[in-house]
Amino acid sequence: MEMEIDSVEYRLSCVLRGHEDDVRGICICGESGIATSSRDRTVRLWVADSDAKHKYSLSKTLAGHTSFVGPLAWIAPSDQFPEGAIVSGGMDTQVLLWNVQTGEIVERMKGHQYQVTGLAVDDNGDIISSSMDCILRRWRKGQAVEFWEAHSVAVQTVIKLSSGEFLTGSSDSTMKLWRGRTCLHTFTGHSDTVRGLALMPGIGVLSASHDCTVKLWALTGQVLMEMVGHTSLVYSVAAHSSGLVASGSEDRFLKIWKDGVCVQSIEHPGCVWDVKFLENGDVVTACSDGVVRVWTRQNDRLADPQETEAYLDQLSQYKLSRKTVGGLKLTDLPGLEALQVPGTIDGQTMVVREGDNGVAYSWNTKQSQWDKIGEVVDGPDDASNGQVYNGTRYDFVFDVDIGDGLPIRKLPYNRSENPYEVADKWLVKENLPLTFREQVVEFILQNSGQKTFTPDPSFRDPYTGANAYVPGESSFSSGSIAEDESQDVDSRYRALVAVGSLILDGAVKSIAIDFDVQSIAKDAKLSKDAKISEVAADIENLIKTK
User: Which residues form a coiled coil (predicted)?
Assistant: First the structure.
């Protein structure tokens, strides 16, 4: 299809509002419209507006997942599905097949242990799914006909090639080419998680990575081109028959690439989770602000001036809410009206908000006025000084999305800390199952730039007295606090008191299965030390009353 371009750059074409939380995935459904997935647990189908062809209206809302929805795949219309079908994967570990005509679930596929991360449809109608559980599964008529471990760590994405083979991307920073269950080739070149894949027609495949780059590969595994420009994790990539490439990132930018060069960057009021090209060359973006946007290079498809102005206002307000000056959040600064209040001592300084800037003033007692000093700016090291959380400065304060419609949790972390210890304490504090420990540790290592971590053999778990957790091994053993004679009595006593505190905080109910509090207390009661056996008895009583 020839695309007539009227302008050089992409501009806003239309806005699709309806989701109630982050929009995580996009699927182009042929001529049937656009499907989107969200943290709001729904899949929504948007169809072209009959009155204005460049606009879309909500056609169907598909609700059936019990947690946030991620990857989507399209099945073209057939005798079985006259209007086509949509496949969706979720944080709830399920793969669902939807009949677009009826809006009903046709098949509910269960088998993955963790979040479903990628979907592809084979020529024979089989569905291929990837998951954080490292497994690829092939589904036929709702049943898993085969599955295998594709990578040793989480599989993040899967796509089908025109040859019928499949390509996977993983948190191990590699991609693998599969023919059936046989790995034909392992692609190496990224230095971090491979998050997204896309076909580059006639050339090879594109990959998006947490190492902030996009790469173009030949199917032999050779890197043909590297696209550098994003300043944070790259989540998605797409290609168009015109040769253009689009990518979306945590840095909040949609970037358009031509021959490896970034020709345009479009800022969003939130991270760009997914990008897709329409056949006509328009680009669709999924943003964490819950909005789907379509961008065009054709003048006859541009958004109304009012809609464009509203978008620019939203972007300005978002940037203003995040801006800091001298380490201070701009929106927290007082306005110019604060200068109406006299200072208390000569030389007293005050920073006030003037437009989008912070300006410093000094109180002049002699003149009884505030003298302007100048604009306050962040120093070159401000961004590297970490973040403050609950009054303490950390190297990182991560936003953790645990799904199920629950709010984002904050996870503070310092590079000097043991990530396993941080994960254990955080899970207990947040009232979450300790079975998520390995996933949290992997999340910490990936997002802090630490590729690997060797547990310190001298590390003692603050709750059980055991050594640091090692994947594949249990870090909790019944009675470890009572039996571990390498710890002094006071240390074991403090550990038990900590357990008791967790029970009082209400954490015991959700962690009792993984963190065997009852067994620990029972064995600790047998301790020869009176204060350990006494506090163990108290813990048993607390458990009974909770």
Answer: none
Largest CA distance in the chain: 88
Rounded to whole angstroms, how far apart are CA atoms 72 and 118? 8
Residue type for 324, please?
A: T
Tokens for 88, please give them: 């969706």
Residue 155 CA to residue 134 CA, distance in Å, equals 5
Which residue blocks in 295-356 are alpha helix, DSSP H?
305-322
Nearest to 192 by CA among 175, 176, 209: 209
The token pair that represents 382 in the structure block? 């401000």
CA distance 120 to 138: 10
**How many other C-beta atoms can be found within 10 angstroms of the C-beta atom of residue 527?**
21
Q: pTM of the prediction? A: 0.66
> Which of 273, 346, 277, 269 lies closest to 315 in space, CA to CA?
269
**Residue 409 to residues 223, 395, 426, 446, 466, Cα–Cα distance (Å):** 38, 17, 10, 17, 27
Q: Which residues pair with 182 in a beta bridge?
A: 179
Angle at 145 between CA 148 and CA 63, to 5 degrees: 95
* Residue 365, number of CB atoms within 10 A of its CB: 13
Of the candidates 228, 229, 227, 230, the one whose C-alpha atom is nearest the C-alpha of residue 243 is: 227
Instruction: Give me the tens of pLDDT residue by residue for the chain, a chain 546 residues long.
Output: 444 444 479 999 999 999 999 999 999 999 889 999 999 999 999 999 877 778 999 999 999 999 999 999 999 999 999 999 999 999 999 999 999 999 999 999 999 999 999 999 999 999 999 999 999 999 999 999 999 999 999 999 999 999 999 999 999 999 999 999 999 999 999 999 999 999 998 899 999 999 999 999 999 999 999 999 998 899 999 999 999 999 999 989 999 999 999 999 999 999 999 999 999 999 999 999 999 999 999 999 999 999 999 999 888 888 777 766 666 677 778 888 888 889 888 888 888 888 767 888 888 888 888 988 877 765 444 444 566 665 566 778 887 766 555 566 788 888 778 888 888 788 777 767 666 777 788 888 877 776 556 554 444 333 333 333 333 333 333 333 344 444 455 555 545 555 554 454 444 433 333 345 566 666 666 666 665 666 667 666 666 655
Query: Do the beta carbons of residue 317 and residue 43 sit within 8 Å?
Result: no
Q: Buried b / exposed e across 456-487, counting CB within 10 Å, b at 16+?
A: eeeebbebbbbbbbeeeeebbbebbbbbbeeb
E strands within 52-102?
A: 56-63, 69-75, 85-90, 95-99
Q: Per the structure block, which two tokens stand in for 427?
A: 């899970």
Contact 423, 415 (CB under 8 A): no
- Three-state secondary structure readout of 480-493: HHHHCCCCCHHHHH
Neighbours of 280 (CB within 10 A): 15
Give CA–CA dist 500/484, Å, rounded: 19
Alpha carbon distance 88, 65 (integer Å): 9
